[in-house]
Amino acid sequence: MIVVVAEKPSVGRDIARVLKCREKGEGYLKGENYLVTWAMGHLVTLCEPDEIDEKYKKWRMEDLPLLPEHIPTKVISKTKAQYAVIKKIINAPDTEKLICATDAGREGELIFRLIYAQAKCKKPVDRLWISSMTDQAILEGFANLKPAREYDGLYRSAACRSEADWLVGMNASRAFTLRFNALLSIGRVQTPTLAILVKRHHEIKDFKPEEYYTVTADFGDYSGQWFSQSDTDEKKSVRIPTKEKADGIAKLVQGKPSRVLSAAAEQKTEYPPQLYDLTSLQREANKKLGFTADKTLKTAQELYEKWKAVTYPRTDSRYLPTDMIGRAKLTLEKLPSDYQSFVTHIPWKDGEKLPVHKRVFDNAKISDHHAIIPTPETAPVEKLPPDAAKLYDMIARRFIAVFYPPHEYDAIRVITESEKQTFKTTGRTVRVNGWKDVYPFEKEEDEKLPALQPGDERTVLKAAVRKETTKPPAPHTDASLLAAMENAGKELDDEKLREQMKGSGLGTPATRASIIERLLQVGYASRRGRAIQATEKGVSLIAIAPPEIASPETTGKWELALDEIARDQRDTQRFMDGIKRLSTFLVEYARDTKTEADFPEEMRRGKKGAGARKTSSIKAVEGIACPLCGKPVQENSKAFGCSEWRNGCHFTLWKDGLKRGGGPLLNEKLVKLLLENGAVQGSTGQIALKNGQVSFTPKDQDAPTASFAIEYRKN
User: Fold this and answer.
1) Which of 321, 325, 300 lies closest to 403 in space, CA to CA?
2) Is 312 a known active-site residue?
3) Are 299 and 252 in a shared domain?
4) What's the pLDDT band for 628 if we cut at 50, 70, 90?
5) CATH number of the structural domain spanning residue 392
6) pLDDT higher for 672 or 14?
7) Catalytic pick among 34, 116, 155, 312
8) What is the per-residue pLDDT across 215-266, written as a single tens digit (0 to 9) for each?
9) Cis preceding-peptide flag for 454 (omega within 30 of 0)
10) Can you list the positions of beta strands (E) in 488-635?
């Protein structure tokens, strides 16, 4: 028997159907030659410090840094039953070999390898590596299995990432929490991401608005804005510092003759935007649809797993391999009928051949996965939930648009002079609409201008003065924060390092959404509409954090190193030695720093003596027990949490965790019902507690859902 281990039950069932495994068992599906079972995400994880040594249950500075030679693993308690199923199956005498069918990426590799090692399995393993969940893709994947050893580099990279996060997180979080007597979470990716938000916070806070004036001249059939020809900054060239000067210019030219000095039309070409990788999809969905990065990822994953409508979404590539030209053509032909009118107008070569160019097909630009595109299986658009339908539409239109010709237009610039004062006028005339035909609802209006030639004369009918004010930088949104994370390192002074960090950035496409959500959950950031802003707590943390953990430089180096480990170009021991040195440094820094910070009143760590902080904002909640340890639950202004947090119980429910999706603030009554019944039905929707997630599902089908992970572990 060949045992296939998938990452999720839904994926396992799809593979089982293709392999004709119809016999149902507890946690598996069996056929004549194959048995398909599945994990539920991670079933095995790294042990907590107190599980390595009981003394670490109490947080003490003298026990830091924690640098175990080996970090043991454990089975996650809430999914131990499914782990037991897999362990028994893969070690069964009649199991000949295994097929790793977890997600084709770093975390998917880690999920399988940890289960395999924990179960002490010795059976041979092949790797299934697919980018879509269609029946055809699954069959092709099984026809092209590779030995698991070819992915050993990917596993080493994943293991290093996991252990590095453990070492830095456990040491830095404990050290800074003890030093500043406030529960602080510090991580190798979340902290430099927070630093980006804090930097923007200070830019907005320190911004001093400046008033200026502009003058617009009406020439009858067109108008122009005054500008200084000596100022090379296009934006600043139109600014007049005082009202007196602006009024003087307006008075000088009003009613006076004017003459066209120049009228130039420059032909411009705008190529189709490239195919989506996950980050570009998240950014555009945030701008166009208002989706958070997390919502886009979950919706894309649903389109991939449940509806088989798009290819694997957790990709960092915007290209397709050349061997997919035939499949791309088939995919276009299989798109739903609503898109076929656009497909017809692709400039097919010889009437049937797909136009091929390097902006779409480039083997050198492919990493583990290609760009996100529709699958060659007609999507049931009429059955898709509203959010999934909107995201599918974006992906489908982009896939069509890349095969269209460029958008071409004339950019017109006219300079008119009156009384030695110059005025500029810009216009735009479309020559070829090109790929923008795929987006008729976004059609741009031509900025029409009369046919003007140098020497043409007009009279200034009116000159209007307008008062303006410089604007502060806008707060970050999911879109701009994702861009900042992706491009972290571009502002580094070290040119060599800046070049090395190209393509690394903070986190990976698959993890950036969860990093943003984590900052919101622990109270370092908050949402206001689409804006994401650092909180007082987040600003205070960055004020005390050293650049070695707050700068994108460190994390960028790590991501670069992890990528090199995955490609067998770097030694893992060298990388882990560097992580241990950094962990030691962070502990010493926290212990020795003279910097002080005043964190907002919240659940603080206990401290005896005169230096203890007041915790009057915390109150006990009657009738609610911690589901983790059974101790009483207490409440502060931001959350409900376990009274045993001093001893390491991290059960926490954030009051505003559901607010960004239209959900209610959690109160004592709701929390009690939630913990007792697992769900609460209200007038606006349902709150549910399941598998470590609190979620809100609105009654309004078109309204966004919301969810957040519970702080639910014991140190």
Assistant:
1) 325
2) yes
3) no
4) confident
5) 1.10.290.10
6) 14
7) 312
8) 999 999 999 999 999 999 999 999 999 999 999 999 999 999 999 999 999 9
9) no
10) 525-528, 531-534, 619-625, 632-635
